[in-house]
Amino acid sequence: MSEKKKILTTSAGIPVPDNQTSMTAGKRGPVLLQDHYLQEKLAHFNRERIPERVVHAKAAGAHGTFTVTNDIKKYTKAKIFSKVGKKIQMFGRFSTVAGEKGSSDTVRDVRGFALKFYTEEGNWDLVGNNTPVFFIRDAIKFPDFIHTQKRDPQTNCKSDVMQWDFWSQVPEALHQVTILFSDRGIPQGIPFMNGYGCHTFSFINAKNERFWVKFHFKTQQGIQCMTPAEANKLAGEDPDFHTHQLFESIKKGDYPKWTLSVQIMPELEADNYQWNPFDLTKVWPHGDYPLIEVGVMELNRNPINYFAEVEQAAFSPSNVVPGISFSPDKMLQARIFSYTDAHRYRLGSNFERLPINAPHATKVQNPYQRDGHMRFDDNGGPGPNYEPNSFGGAKEDHSYDEPPLKLFGDAARYEQKRGVDDDYIQPGNLYRIMSAKQQKELIENITKSLKKVPSAIQERMIGHFSKADKAYGNGIAKGLGLS
Ligand code: NDP
After folding, report:
1. What's the pTM value of the predicted model, to 2 decimals?
2. Which listed residue (36, 63, 123, 129) is catalytic?
3. Which atom of ligand 1 is nearest to 291's Cα?
């Protein structure tokens, strides 16, 4: 008990004489306006909540490491992959999508799988999901889609009708709907699910050759899922089940691990591949592009403070490092804008300078970007705030230029499809690789939800399921009592 006494101060560092009693005019009188400490305390409390993320609000996060286990230098010059055995620091945030910040972890939902790798050439963010595909392939549909996952404008309740109405008119959603309503729609926990970069990205090697790439993080704990009955029970009894399961697991040294693999497509093969390789509703079958192992990600350190490290963590697909880049995927292109836009709204224009987001690679972030709300470092100091300048300021370096990407065609609003109507083949393939038990559960899960919607929507959906696989459609129709 010999610890030095810590004196409580105001935010301005002034000692606080009393943290239990506000100052009043006389023993029974009203509170005085001059009690600035009371004002500071209440005013700061009123501002504790920052805008909640519209999507991915509920999450758990952890720090970890990424270790390279295989040489992929022939595909990418990214320094993160430069040597087998190389280990770097990373941070991961794992979320549900639709629910609010206080919602249950064990709902049927896609899970966000957002990773920040603090590489020596800046931060690489891979902002993916636990599913390899998504509901839509064009961001112009995104706000509408998310509205269907949120609350009815009148009742403020979630609505099975809204989501099925939307999906029934957007057949490209069928692949992701099939994954969502399969056993994998409710993971047993964060360590027991895979993660995917989802989009097609590009790799660029030291010879400036481009490859298209997909990222897969396969769980080393094995896929484990939760039954709907178990999930519903936990949603009432322990809504933060996944959050503290991850925390406790790391606390006791049981560190979850994932193997990172990539699928690689040489640049020009994209022109003639049977699937549009930039369509986010499609996978590249492993038979065409096998997985190539790259490394291991391990989560091994809990955050010390949730708000500072998890809530303020800001991931963006725009954060790619030399050797890793974008592709013509329309959804990726839109997310390059919308994630940073969300963070500027949520955290302010200096969000990249917050400790959890700041690169480990350099202390000097762009010195020509100045000022803005909550600029808490030296704001670029006395150095020049414009470029070009004659005073030794930082300069661009064209050695980081990417090889030019050939694009063609007329500007128009194209439905991103090949000649054949291909929205049904891959959901059908997934249905056909499922065991009989998984197929039965898939059909039960869908039927339970579809029972709540008008028959015209049910019929449209049965049309889609049947086009994917006759047995899939028949199973749903039978479950709904329709022929
Ligand atoms: P493969 O047999 O080579 O791979 C099947 C894949 O499906 C495996 O990655 C497996 O993951 C995954 N899988 C199994 N059950 C489910 C489920 N309920 N939800 C989501 N994924 C599941 O086949 P193909 O590569 O030819 O793909 C066939 C279908 O598999 C695709 O149409 C797609 O729906 C699905 N899939 C394909 C992926 C790919 O990148 N090719 C990735 C994920 C799914 P695991 O090995 O972890 O068990």
Report:
1. 0.96
2. 129
3. 40
Query: Could you tell me the pLDDT band of residue 75, with boundaries at 50, 70 and 90?
Result: very high
pLDDT value for 483: 72
Return the amino acid letter for 431.
Y
Q: Domains (ranges, CATH) in the chain?
A: 1-26+35-48 (no CATH), 59-362 (2.40.180.10), 424-480 (no CATH)
Instruction: Report whether pLDDT(421) > 70.
Output: no
420 by Cβ neighbours in 10 Å (0-12 / 13-18 / 19+) ranks as exposed
Question: Is 56 designated active site?
Answer: yes
Query: Does the active-site annotation cover 36?
Result: no
Query: For 2-6, 15-19, 20-24, 139-143, which range has the lowest pLDDT when averaged over its residues?
Result: 2-6
Residue listed under structure tokens 């706000």: 143
Nearest partner of 356 among 90, 112, 56, judged by Cα: 90
Summarised one tens digit per residue, pLDDT across range 190-233 is 999 999 999 999 999 999 999 999 999 999 999 999 999 999 99
For residue 364, what are the CA distances in angstroms to 100, 125, 308, 322, 373? 36, 19, 21, 18, 19
Q: What percent of the chain has pLDDT over 90?
A: 94
How far apart are the CA of 363 and the centre of ligand 1, in A?
42
